[in-house]
Structures are given as structure tokens and as C-alpha cells.
Specification:
This protein has about 130 residues and is mainly alpha-helical. Helix content is about 75%, strand content about 0%. It has seven helices and no strands. It has helices at about 5, 15-25, 30-40, 40-65, 75-95, 100-110, 115-130. It starts with a helix and ends with a helix. About 10% of the residues are buried.
Length: about 130
């Protein structure tokens, strides 16, 4: 479900904007967080939005898993498409709250077949190094 669909029941444009900012970046004012803590209905909206983001990232991870590694004969457009999708995924994952990101990382790690784990670990280590982690 899209964020717009989840937020469609919120009539106040300012509040809808605060929800969008929180869902997309995790940024929120203390007042917004207090309001969120006090409202089970609003908590359900946020939970559904985070679950939808995680599901999109899981689908993307599954698609990456199905792709064959780029071979010497693979076209540049295939490699570029994979690079673009990976960049998009990293950007989306960076927006997730820590707990959702941790769940996503665990689910993605479990999805990697055991025989591919050394290669994936190598790629992740290079990515982590490039990101300064």
C-alpha cells in the first residue's frame, strides 16, 4: 500500500505532512511523537507504512537474488540497471527506522543461499567500507 493511501484518512494537511516526513526520514518533533504515542490509530498507520517499505525492500532483495551476476558478455544496460536498483535500495533503507532496518537486514541475510554468502559478504564489506562503516 502506498504512503498516500495510508495517509488519506488524515484530513489535516499539516499533520499529514508530519506523518510523511516521519515515515520517509524518521524525523519528528516531540509534539508529533507524543501525539503518536497517545493514538493507537496513528500508530497503526505508521506501522503499516514501515511494513510496506520493508516489503518493497524485501521484494527488491528477492529480485536481486534472482538476477545472475553480470558476466563479461552482459550488456552495460543490465549492469547499469542493477547499479541503479542497488542505489535506490540503499537510499530507501537509509530512511528506515533502526528496528525496521535491522529486520530487513536479517531477512535479507537469511534469503542469501549458503553457497553465495562468501561473495555477498565480500560485496557488503566493500559497500560498508565505501560508506565509512
Amino acid at each position: 500500500m502506498s504512503t498516500d493511501a495510508l495517509l488519506s484518512g488524515i484530513d489535516d494537511p499539516g499533520l499529514r505532512s508530519q506523518f510523511r516526513r516521519f515515515i520517509e526520514s524518521g524525523d519528528a518533533t516531540e509534539e508529533f511523537l507524543d501525539m503518536l504515542d497517545a493514538s493507537p490509530e496513528y500508530q497503526k498507520i505508521v506501522d503499516a507504512a514501515f511494513e510496506a517499505q520493508a516489503a518493497r525492500l524485501e521484494r527488491f532483495a528477492a529480485n536481486l537474488h534472482e538476477l545472475e551476476p553480470a558476466s563479461a558478455g552482459a550488456s552495460a544496460s543490465q549492469a547499469g540497471n542493477l547499479s541503479s536498483r542497488l542505489a535506490w535500495t540503499v537510499k530507501q533503507a537509509a530512511k528506515l527506522p533502526a528496528d525496521a532496518l535491522e529486520r530487513l537486514a536479517e531477512q535479507t541475510a537469511r534469503a542469501v543461499p549458503p553457497d553465495q554468502r562468501p561473495h555477498v559478504n565480500s560485496v557488503v564489506a566493500k559497500l560498508s567500507e565505501a560508506l565509512g562503516r
